[in-house]
Specification:
- Helix 8 runs antiparallel to helix 9.
- Helices cover 69% and strands 8% of the residues.
- A five-stranded mixed β-sheet has the order 2-3-1-4-5, with helices on both faces.
- The chain is elongated, with a radius of gyration of 36 Å.
- It folds into three domains: 2-141, no CATH class; 152-202, no CATH class; 219-349, no CATH class.
- The protein is built from 14 helices and five strands.
- It has helices at residues 12-17, 26-39, 45-58, 76-94, 109-112, 115-119, 138-150, 152-177, 182-202, 204-221, 224-249, 255-287, 297-316, 322-349, and strands spanning 2-8, 23-24, 64-70, 101-106, 124-129.
- The protein has 357 residues and is α/β, with parallel strands linked by helices.
- It comes from Halococcus hamelinensis 100A6.
- InterPro entries: DUF373.
Length: 357
């Protein structure tokens, strides 16, 4: 048995013509088609119903039935589920001993999105799309564009580079009016487009989004780490500047001396950034009642490492002697060991959380 199935995914039959679905049988489908065409002559779903009647009348060599099913106005999963339920009702009502196959009649790609739901219930012999000749493929094009614009991933991939490209000409004209070289505008926009493609290709946008989300959560949760991180970044920036300044102040002849000069200038500021950041994290863990005494090792380790690097770099540049370097290495090592042992003893005697039962 062949079932000619007319699909109205946005339920124009129910909303406009007041027809209850599913509609089964030639006479009932014809009545529903006339009712919809009378209510809204421009609705393409009436063409779907008439096409279903046309296919029904053309087939004379086997048993055939025509039916119409509808979804809901909002579309999506709810519409597909309603169509599936109505098909189940139709199949239960037919109850023939023959295998039931379907010919699906739609008015565009949007209604055809329900085909997997239909195929899960009965075999499909074919799909007939009914579109007004003067508007061939117009609805399908509209639906495809709508799907692209609704998808955040596709929207970001296509529209952002397209927007940057479209900005090249107006920005170049504006720059020419202001006396700015056009090559500078092209260079900036090309750099933006290149950075965007690089970020998308490497997946860095997810890392940035996660970082922004963590910062937002920390800001509203009152975490000290947010402030100390900003201060630490500023200190690192100052350290980089001071390191570059130290390069100009020293006459360096090889890569080792270049690295040593940069370290001498930058390491105090970078160490201050590390201590600041670690103190912020320790404060947050204390406020969240997850504090451990061993966490206090972090700022001590940072200070010890900074002292060692500064002494070694100064020795390589000839600014300090061997005795001072040896003293700094010994002091840094002892500071780390004493800190580790001291906080381990304190944690064993004054545990911050009760032992598990």
């Amino acid at each position: 048995m062949l079932l000619v199935l007319c699909i109205d995914l946005d339920d124009d039959l129910g909303r406009k013509a007041g027809v209850e679905t599913p509609v089964v049988g030639r006479d009932r489908v014809e009545h529903a088609a006339v009712a919809l065409a009378t209510t809204d002559p421009e609705d393409s779903d009436s063409n779907v119903l008439f096409e279903g009647l046309h296919i029904h009348d053309e087939i004379t060599d086997e048993q055939v039935e025509v039916a119409a099913v509808t979804g809901v106005e909002s579309g999506g999963v709810a519409a597909n589920r309603k169509v599936g339920n109505e098909i189940d009702q139709i199949l239960a009502g037919l109850a023939t001993g023959e295998e039931i196959r379907a010919v699906v009649v739609t008015d565009g790609a949007q209604d055809e999105s329900v085909i997997p739901v239909i195929r899960s219930r009965l075999p499909i012999d074919g799909v007939r799309r009914v579109v007004v000749r003067q508007a061939q493929n117009l609805e399908s094009m509209y639906y495809t564009m709508k799907q692209v614009l609704d998808d955040p991933e596709t929207r970001g991939t296509i529209l952002v580079p397209l927007g940057i490209l479209l900005l090249i000409y107006p920005l170049a004209e504006t720059a020419a009016q202001l006396g700015v070289p056009g090559a500078a505008v092209f260079g900036v926009l090309s750099a933006l487009l290149g950075l965007y493609v690089l970020f998308r290709g490497l997946g860095l946008e997810r890392v940035i989004d996660e970082g922004v989300a963590r910062a937002r959560r920390g800001l509203y949760a009152g975490r000290v780490m947010v402030i100390t991180t900003v201060v630490a970044v500023a200190l690192v920036a100052v350290g980089v500047v001071r390191g570059l300044g130290a390069l100009d102040a020293h006459t360096t002849v090889n890569a080792v001396e270049v690295l040593a000069a940069f370290t001498v200038g930058s390491v105090p500021w970078v160490a201050a950034a590390g201590v600041t950041s670690s103190l912020g994290r320790i404060t947050d863990t204390y406020l969240a009642e997850r504090f451990r005494w061993r966490y206090l090792n972090a700022p001590v380790y940072v200070a010890a490492i900074a002292a060692v690097l500064h002494a070694v770099s100064g020795f390589l540049l000839g600014e300090v002697g061997l005795s001072y370097t040896a003293l700094a290495l010994t002091a840094g090592t002892l500071l780390g060991l004493v800190s580790t042992l001291a906080f381990a003893v304190v944690e064993s005697r004054f545990p911050t959380t009760p032992d598990p039962v």
